[in-house]
Amino acid sequence: MRPLLMSLVSSCVLVSSAHAKDPALGASTFTVYEAFLSPAQEPGEESEVPRLLEKSLGATAPSTPREARKSRGHGVLRFSKDLIRAYVEVEMTGVNPSDILMFHIHCGAPGVLGPVVVDFGELGNLSKTLANGRWSVELTNANVTFIKEMKGIKPGLPESCPAELGFLAQTRTLASLESLARKGVLYFNLHTKAHTYYGEMRGQLYAAQP
Predict the structure, then answer these.
(1) Mean predicted confidence (pLDDT) in 167-194
(2) How many other CB atoms sit within 10 Å of the CB of residue 102?
C-alpha cells in the first residue's frame, strides 16, 4: 500500500509543477534540424537524364559522376517554437559559386525526387550570397512555395508532399514545414550548371544531435 501511496504523491507533485511559460520564449527557443549534403544522396546520374530535358532545365556544362564530385555541404534549419520564423544556415565546399543555378528545400523521402517547398533563389542572387561558401536567411510563411507543378516530372499533386499521401491540403506554413521535417521528408538540393535535374548535391534533413 505504501509504494502505491508514494507513487500517487509523486504523480501529484509532477503535475502541480507544470505551469505556463513566458510567451516570449516561443521566439527565442528553437527546434533544430540539420543535413550533411553530398552528391551520393542524389537518386541518379545527370548523364541518365534525357538531353532535351537537361537543356530545358538550363544545363550548360558537362556533368561529373556522383562519386567523382568533391562538393560537400552542411545546412541547419531552425524553427522558432512559436513557428513564426525559421532560420537557415548553410556552408559549402567544392562548388564554384558562379556555377550555382538553384538552391531549394524539397519534400521527398531519401532517394525520391519531390517538389520544391522553399526556393532560395527568390531571396536573392545565389552566386553572390554563396560567394564565400556560407549563407544564412530568415524564413516566414510567405517563403513556403505553393506547388503548381513538378516541372519536368509530372503535374503537381494536391498533397503537400509525395511522401505524405492522404493530405488534402498543401504545406503553406512553417508549422506544416516543421511537421514534415520531423518525419524526415525534407531535403536541401543544390543545382549547378552541370547538374540541373537531380542536382549537384543533396542533404536529407533530420533532427540535430546535441
Answers:
(1) 87
(2) 18
